[in-house]
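Example 4.3 (complexes with small molecules)
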Amino acid sequence: MFRIESKIDTTSPEFISNKEKYIELLNKYKKILAEVKKGSSPRAVEKHKERGKLLARERIDMLVDQNTPFLELSTLAAYGTHNNEFPSAGIITGIGVIHGQEALIIANDATVKGGTYMKDTIKKHIRAQDIAFENHLPCVYMVDSGGVFLPDQANVFPDKDGFGRFFFNQARMSAAGIPQIAIVMGSCTAGGAYMPAMSDEVIIVKNQGTIFIGGPPLVKAATGEEVTAEELGGAEVHTVISGVADHFAENDQHAIQICRNIFQTFEKKEKQKLDIAPIEEPFYDPEELYGIAPVDLRKPVDSHEIIARIVDGSKFQEFKARYAPTIVTGFARIMGFPVGIIANNGVIFSETSLKAAHFVELCAARNTPIIFLQNITGFMVGKQYEHGGIARDGAKFVHAVANANVPKFTLVFGGSFGAGNYAMSGRAYEPRLLLMWPSSKISVMGGEQAANVLITVKQDQLRASGKSMTEEEISNLRNEILQKYEFEGSAYFSSSRIWDDGIVDPVDTRKVLAMGIAASLNKPFPPTKYGIFRM
Ligand code: COA
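Answer. The structure with coenzyme A bound is encoded below.
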């Protein structure tokens, strides 16, 4: 494969200024991340530790193999909502390696409202289970939760993707041969009792873990019976009397060790075969991405320059380099894994869609995971393009992406606007992971375009009734819309709502993608079958 020849001058004032601005953005992101990772109030953290319990992230560190990374997902879930009283939405999820096996870990953070579940906590838990299901990753539930966050009951209980979905997922995954292990390290109350009960194997910690359908206050109110939590559903009860749990642990550390031992008993499953090569660092320093990554989305970025700093040896086997240059397609390797890359390099035209659809077919036929690098304002508009059938050709691209059954990974490095988001494997297209760079933006269209559309609609309405808007009214409306889109379009807003799986530092991109690809090999890629392409 040939190496991409970078055209970037890293000494240019433009590069240096972009880098400075990007590092500023990155520092803001790192500060927020550190704040969120502190968990709840210092008092709640202290109380938790006084009980001899480890914090959720400490538990995970101890569970995964030493010197292996833990890919934490959606750390900024619920950020900027609920007065920031739910850091990480009160639950830590991610992919880690246990005895050499990738696993999906879900750990309640009991320092956050007793580990209870509000709307975003539920969404994050279910997203983690979806990742486990898609990739056939064994699940470990480190349970320490008071169940439903009762004030939010209307948002968490009754719907398809409510609390009940956890147990449906556990049953389905268990049936698919995906191990479900629960470690009860605190409360499992009411519906939460099913988290261990629905698991294949359950570990419970002495004087700490409890499992009951109704806690002591409820029992007293219902029957008048007075009972302590330990007598009602502690470790002794469930490992000796009820059989709800299988393994008795002295403390958190012991429970985690038992869980690791359980992993040694799993059947070794056939993985998807890929032609994996030795890892090669990119020829161009990934830190140069700070000088290249778009800070101002109006400024075009040559996506070859991004690819050159993500892929092994900066080597890229480009496909149709001379044709439809507003999309860049080609094969490369990331940390030794073969990948197909589809990167935006401008607006999408008919021929761009056809080139990309063709390339998706190549990747699916060659069992090669696809990386989508999004920086897309959308499809080209205008009479000429509509007459040329851009909707028909765009549909081919969307159809190919929707049906390609090789693992897809999406990184938004710039903007993600309009139907381009769909074609480039946005969330609805089930990429195995969807990641954002801190500077990236996502919304149905850019703020400027939305403001123009809404002002035109308003002016047309008023004109019909013989009225008009003053310049000041137009300017106020424009500012209002711009501000709304600026706020709602940010990567933080997206991550808070779990529209993505997390924000990543550009230099970590290749490692995170590689972890995603490694995890995806746990489930052999199913064959791809397309439907009817509109010709
Ligand atoms: N809904 C809403 N808030 C809850 C809650 C619930 N189910 N359970 C606990 N909380 C809140 C508390 O109000 C408190 O909030 P604050 O930090 O704003 O003061 C915080 O979580 C911590 O609760 P606290 O009781 O002080 O902590 P703890 O560690 O001693 O006990 C629990 C945690 C979960 C064991 C205990 O609060 C409890 O048993 N909760 C009720 C559980 C229940 O019956 N759930 C049924 C839901 S289906």
